[in-house]
Amino acid sequence: MDTRYIALLAVYLAILLAISPFLGRYIRECMENGRYRLTAWGRPIERAIYRIAGVDLQA
Hints:
- By secondary structure, the protein is mainly alpha-helical.
- It is built from 2 helices and no strands.
- The longest helix has 31 residues.
- The protein is elongated and about 50 Å long.
């Protein structure tokens, strides 16, 4: 393995470790309360994607 790839892997793992606490908090809030700050913001986008894909929301 080349040094560039090892450095790229190290950067990737550092980014994953840096965002994991925030992502974990988000998932915990969504699972416990069912709502989160970003949930209300993303709901219209989610509905539009479902409508474009032809997914029935009531199913």
